[in-house]
Amino acid sequence: YKEINICRKEVEGVRISELMKQQWTNSSVSTTNMFTVAAENSGDNSLVSQVTQSSGGVTTNNMSDLFSLCATYRSDATSDSYDSSYSTTDSSFKVNAQAALKNRDSLNTEIQSVLSAAGIKLDSATKLTFTVGADSSISVSGAKDAATKAKIEAALNSKTGLGATMIKQNVVVKLLNNQDVSQLQYDKWEVANFLQEKAGQDISDLSLVNGQLTGANEKLTALIDSADKSGSSSAKTVQEMIASLKKVLSYGQDKIPDMSVSYGYQRGALIDKNVQYGFGPNQLKSWYAQVMSGSSSSSSSSNYWV
Predict the structure, then answer these.
(1) Cβ count near 194 (within 10 Å)
(2) Is the C-alpha dihedral spanning 260, 261, 262, 267 positive or negative?
(3) What is the pLDDT of residues 155-197, one digit of tens each?
(4) Rg of the chain over CA atoms, in angstroms?
(5) What is the pTM for the complete model shown?
(6) Which uninterrupted H or E stretch holds 269?
(7) Using CB atoms within 10 A of its CB, is residue 153 exposed (0-12), middle (13-18) or buried (19+)?
């Protein structure tokens, strides 16, 4: 999640005036006041204090929360999209691409380790597709038979957090490729997984009535109460998740599409789909060295397989 926020800061923070013009020109609230209005409506004084006015537009130290707040305030399905404009000549692109490659190498190693431990050996010609659903479970297609498919899925899903890592890396790659990322969709996925993991609570059982959370089970209620009394970092995480949950519920969870990502997988490596700057082995050959050396990047390839 830290990597995603780094990308957001680089992509959006330096271009806030342009982004505001693109995202909210049709708003009944002027763009110069939108962040202030959203922050004030959130009831979060810390957010209000982070908003400053200037002749160049609005700046803030907390872009993620304010983008979500604006989306909730406007009840507009597109207003929470991260409309980035990355150039491969930007130093921030190179920094984030290097970080993404390092993390992808680690993820590929982890997947290979999981498969190997389960006694699964794939030949170099095998082309699989891994799809991660809203509950972070991983499904597989392209296996030679049903038994192999089931064995691979069981191995991948036995590794806690693997599906979540794949979703987070997909978001980073999308941002690097100037593709829209919905903050509300991401929040819905993250919160739903947090609730299941920490409290065994289904997000669909929860609702917001007059700003108050209803439908929480005993474990979630205790978790919230404990966080409100503690100043620890874990308590802060709980409070942040509950704040995100309230935004999702306020917007309408049924209005927000479920998160789902898909990768190709071959020869021990994940391959990004439908992107110009991908991190599969052959994808990297088409652009990485040129971009890092400062040369112009090559054209994208429509073939995501190695």
Answers:
(1) 20
(2) negative
(3) 999 999 999 999 999 999 998 898 888 888 999 999 999 999 9
(4) 21
(5) 0.70
(6) strand 269-272
(7) middle
